[in-house]
Amino acid sequence: MKQFLYLFFFGIISTMNAQEIAVLKYNGGGDWYSNPTALPNLIEYTNANIFTKIRKNPTTVAVGDSDLFNYPIVFLTGHGNVYFSEDEAKNLRNYLISGGFLHISDNYGLDTFIRREIKKVFPNLIFQEIPKNHPIFNQTFTFKNGLPKIHEHDKKRSQGFGLFYEGRLICFYDYESDLSDGWEDAIVHNNPKEVREKALKMGANIIEYAFKH
Q1: What confidence tens digit (pLDDT) does each residue in 58-117 have?
Q2: Count of C-beta atoms within a 10 Å radius of residue 53
Q3: Are the beta carbons of 101 and 136 closer than 8 angstroms?
C-alpha cells in the first residue's frame, strides 16, 4: 500500500512540475556541468516550436537527492568519470521505474563510465540500439535515418541507445552524436546553422516523447 501511494503521489508531483527539467549532478570527477548553454537553448527552442512551457533555466539536482522525483526529465552529460554510490543508484532506479526519464548525452569520453554505473542502477538491463522507426525519432520532427550526427570525434556512426523497463523507454543515450554540442550557443563550436537545427529538433523530439510517455 505504501509503495502504491508513493507511485500515485509521484505521478501528481510529476504533472505539477512538468514544466521543469533538471541537470543531473554526479560524483566521480566528470564535468557534469559542461555545455552550460545547451539546455537553456533547447528549452527555448521547444517552447517556441512544440509549444511546451518549460522554465528556461534548468535546475541542478544530485543523483541521490529526493528532489529528483520532482522532475519528469533529467539530463546527464560530461566527458569523464561518473560514479554512483549504492544509495544514489537506488534513488535513480526508483526515479526511473516510477515514471522518470533520463537523457544521457555522451560529450565524448563518457561511454565507459556511464555504462559501468548504469549497471549498478539496473544490473539486468542492457542498452539496446533504438531502431529508426521508433517513435522518439518520429515526433513533431522526423529523422528517417535515426539519431543525427552533430559533432565528429573518431568517425564512428551516431547511435541512439535505450534502457527499457517493462516495455517503457526510461533512458535515452545519444552516443557518438553529441547532441548537446549542437544545442550550445553557435559561437561555442561554430557548428553550421543546419547542424544546430538538427540537434535542436532531435532534442525537442526527446522532450516531447518523454512528456508523452
Answers
A1: 999 999 999 999 999 999 999 999 999 999 999 999 999 999 999 999 988 899 999 999
A2: 9
A3: no
**Domain housing 20:** 2-212
CATH of the domain at 24: 3.40.50.12140
Q: Strand 128-129 and strand 159-165: pairing? A: antiparallel
Which position has the grid cell 516531447? 208
Indicate if the alpha-carbon torsion angle 96, 128, 211, 47 is positive or negative. positive
Q: How many domains does the chain have?
A: 1
Question: What are the beta bridge partners of residue 128?
Answer: 162
Location of C-alpha cell 544545442? 183
How many angstroms separate the CA atoms of 178 and 168, rounded?
24
User: Mean of the pLDDT values across residues 187-204?
Assistant: 90
